[in-house]
Design a protein that fits this description.
two-stranded parallel ribbon, two-stranded antiparallel sheet, 6 helices
Length: 189
């Protein structure tokens, strides 16, 4: 199974402190992790699949294009960058794990890296709050989205008894079964 990444190759370097000379193979895992573990659960399976399919075919329009451009893309950029900051200074090769050193710079302390990571996470959280406001305002026009509030208010019938559906009992919850695929699968740009 391939994962279509919802970012272009230069989106991180254009919008974050990440330099343009970083090899894509170094930050692709960060994008994929952020997309699968943070973006997909927020959108839910149906809306996520629609956005991915429309992105893949370059057919995002209307509210879906606005959703992608104003919320999903920036959230993914900042969350992926925050994740990359946690491992970007390290290299793994046949000789072992080592910390990469630049020829024209000095390495940052853990506190400085943590500060940069928190800043990127803060940007992500701001976009996330705005995403939920956007989805709430446009819930009727985006039928693929099912809010947590809607999920909690669904009723389940058991032998004539009617119960409110809890998140734990919701088999359609997007938070169950999410996992990272192995790193050998093909990534589409």
């Amino acid at each position: 199974m391939t994962t279509t990444l919802l970012l272009k190759e230069d989106d991180l370097s254009k919008n974050t402190p990440l330099g343009g000379n970083v090899e894509p193979s170094r930050f692709i895992p960060a994008i994929k992790t952020a997309q699968i573990n943070f973006i997909k659960p927020l959108l839910g399976k149906d809306l996520y699949n629609k956005i991915v399919q429309d992105f893949k075919t370059d057919s995002l329009t209307g509210l879906y294009l606005e959703l992608y451009t104003d919320y999903i893309q920036p959230m993914l950029i900042h969350k992926a960058t925050a994740h990359y900051f946690t491992y970007g200074a390290y290299q793994i090769s046949n000789k072992g794990i080592y910390k990469a050193g630049g020829t024209d710079g000095e390495g940052l302390s853990k506190n400085e890296v943590d500060y940069m990571t928190k800043a990127q996470d803060s940007y992500y959280e701001n976009y996330k709050r705005n995403l939920f406001a956007f989805l709430k305002d446009n819930e009727q026009a985006i039928p693929e989205y099912i809010s947590e509030e809607t999920k909690r208010t669904k009723r389940v019938n058991f032998g004539g008894w009617s119960f409110g559906k809890s998140k734990d009992n919701d088999s359609s919850s997007t938070n169950t079964g999410t996992h990272i695929q192995n790193s050998w699968e093909v990534i589409e740009w």
